[in-house]
Amino acid sequence: MKRSVLYFTAPHQVSLCEEELPEPEPGQVLVKTVLSAISPGTEALIYRGQFPRDLEIDAKLPALSGKFTYPFSYGYAAVGQVIRCGEDVDPAWEGQKVFAFQPHASHFLAAVDSLLPIPEQLALEDAVFLPNMETAVNFLLDGAPVIGERVVVFGQGIVGLLTTALLALFPLQCLVTLEPVEMRRQASLQAGAHHSFDPLAPQALEQVKEILGTDLADLVYELSGTPDVLNQALALCGFAGRLVIGSWYGEKRASLDLGGRFHRSRIHLISSQVSTLSPERSGRWTHTRRFEVAWEMLAAVRPSRWITHRFPYREAQEAYHTLDTSPGETIQILLTYT
């Protein structure tokens, strides 16, 4: 059978290509995609061509093997239904609704052990947020918020909003977010932030400092995707505070001021990326355990409320153009397949 696959072919250009798909091999199933989510951070960089050339796309995911060289397929949030099973696959898989870390495509083949069955009570439009929720869970594992702490989050895109929603479940002293887009600031307050400010507004950092008090923040997250924000984040970290850097900057460079109070304040810079678990956690935590928590948090948070756009798969070019040119109007964009 034939399937359609989305390829990034040049900066600001995507193409849909027809490919022949073989029958499922033993241990594989054929899945028809229902929804796929566009990663607003990573895929915006990829669409603009702001990625390191010759970097491996993702060694942890077989569907994303290869390097960032044109043309290449990408995407890691697909929800679909199993429509055919290969040999040695339990027939009960047929008809199962599943999540897969697969590029944007109308159909795909996958080993059954790479698929995650979607809990029956969870809507597909919530399930498609699984990778972003897993990332948010990982941010909390790495940042380790503590009762009564003062926490700041820079960036309220979808990952930032999910992180804020999870932090709001903790008995924190205060939870402050900074985001230049008004729509996202409102969503942040709805997610549980106590205050949300525009970091570009005059005196915004001073207002945040007044809320935090002289000891400043115990924990700060940089999730904006903007390297220049790192110095603002450092400015809000208190003595021995933790700064979790969850953004991927691609080819963008960060110029850090490490010669001022940073050195004497013993601030901890923490790199957090979801493909691995912190060594401090790995004695008890596994990827499976983290997925179980992410499913539970999806049911609790219901992030489908933050879907702002749904584009038919055939209009993918317009979807990426919207992401690139109208970020102030978007939180989460989905591609829909019929």
Overview of the structural elements:
With 338 residues, the protein is of the alpha/beta class. The protein has helices spanning 42-48, 124-127, 130-143, 158-167, 182-191, 204-212, 229-236, 261-265, 287-301, 316-325, and strands spanning 2-10, 13-20, 28-38, 78-85, 97-100, 107-111, 116-117, 150-154, 174-178, 195-197, 217-222, 237-245, 268-271, 307-312, 332-336. The strands form 3 sheets. Strands 3, 4, 5, 6, 7, 14 and 15 form a 7-stranded mixed sheet that branches. A 6-stranded parallel sheet has the order 10-9-8-11-12-13, with helices on both faces. It has a two-stranded antiparallel ribbon with strand order 1-2. The radius of gyration is 20 Å and the shape is globular.
What key phrases describe this protein's structure?
338 residues; alpha/beta; seven-stranded mixed sheet; six-stranded parallel sheet; 10 helices
Give unreliable regions as ranges.
Answer: none
Give the DSSP E fraction (strand runs of 2 or more residues): 25-35%
Number of helices: 10
Using the alpha-carbon principal axes, give the shape.
Answer: globular
- Strand elements, count: 15
Structural class label: alpha/beta
Mean pLDDT rating: 93
Question: What gyration radius follows from the Cα positions, in whole Å?
Answer: 20 Å
Biggest sheet statistics: 7 strands, mixed
**Separation, N- and C-terminal Cα atoms:** 16 Å
DSSP helix fraction: 25-40%
Order of helices and strands: EEEHEEEEHHEHEHEHEHEHEHEHE
